[in-house]
Design goal:
The protein has about 250 residues and is an alpha+beta fold. The protein has 7 helices and 11 strands. The strands form 2 sheets. A 6-stranded antiparallel beta sheet has the order 1-2-3-4-6-5, with helices on one face.
Length: about 250
């Protein structure tokens, strides 16, 4: 992340931060650091929500508003009146800056995935589909748990599964648009949270996944030891994890 992040000054009080994370157009995600009083504000300058609206997914329905609000709350990100997403950090505190920047990027990437709601095929967000499926199997666990990674940044895990309090939990992350970039984020999560549990896996929405992309995703998962579940074979794949069930629905 450090080697592939480019910072470009805009003026005396603002810089542009070009990150190595890609959006759905394969463009690098840009955020801005702006001096605001005694704080530094990190913001997307309204690009994320504006891009969704231009893609036919305006935030004008109760359901989309609820999903947006949940993503923002989980990551500790705020939305301004003009649609900009932002977090405020303390100057001269590298850990605060890194953690808050990570929170903003996580929110941007998850909100960007909401473009699938504009598709007639899509009835719900993939994370909700996974939660409903786990609930139907009475899999014990909780949703949207924040962990502190080894480097000090906070990471939000979609599903934390544990049969007994003495067991190491299984962390399950849902991936709506499986590709090399999303798997890179998965590898980052695995390295950051290995001290929490060795059981970190992903479930991908493979319903419209091309064979070449499936091969790329599978190769990365195998190389880094990340158990990979496919939505189309979820019951069979989930059985290989050896997780018991209990009457605790999501």
């Amino acid at each position: 992340m450090r080697d592939n992040t480019v910072i470009r000054p805009i003026d005396d009080d603002a810089v542009e931060i070009n990150t190595p994370f890609m959006d759905r157009h394969n463009d690098g995600i840009q955020i801005y650091a702006i001096k605001s009083g005694d704080r530094i504000r990190l913001t997307d300058d309204g690009h994320t929500i504006m891009n969704l609206e231009q893609s036919g997914c305006p935030m004008d329905t109760d359901r989309r508003k609820r999903i947006l609000e949940t993503i923002l709350n989980v990551n500790g990100v705020s939305e301004s009146d003009d649609g900009s997403l932002y977090v405020d950090v303390r100057p001269n505190d590298p850990l605060s800056f890194a953690s808050k920047k990570n929170d903003l990027l996580n929110a941007i990437m998850r909100i960007t995935d909401m473009h699938i709601l504009a598709s007639p095929r899509s009835k719900s967000m993939f994370q909700s589909d996974v939660g409903d499926w786990l609930g139907s199997r009475s899999v014990p666990g909780v949703r949207d748990v924040r962990f502190t990674g080894r480097s000090g940044v906070s990471l939000t895990v979609d599903f934390t599964i544990s049969r007994r309090i003495t067991d190491a939990p299984t962390l399950l992350q849902s991936i709506t648009s499986p590709d090399v970039q999303s798997m890179a984020r998965m590898v980052f999560m695995r390295e950051e949270l290995r001290h929490v549990t060795p059981r970190i896996c992903a479930i991908i929405d493979d319903r419209d996944l091309s064979q070449s992309r499936r091969n790329d995703v599978g190769m990365i998962a195998e190389e880094y030891g990340i158990p990979l579940l496919s939505w189309t074979s979820r019951d069979e794949d989930f059985g290989t994890l050896g997780i018991g069930t209990a009457p605790v629905p999501y």
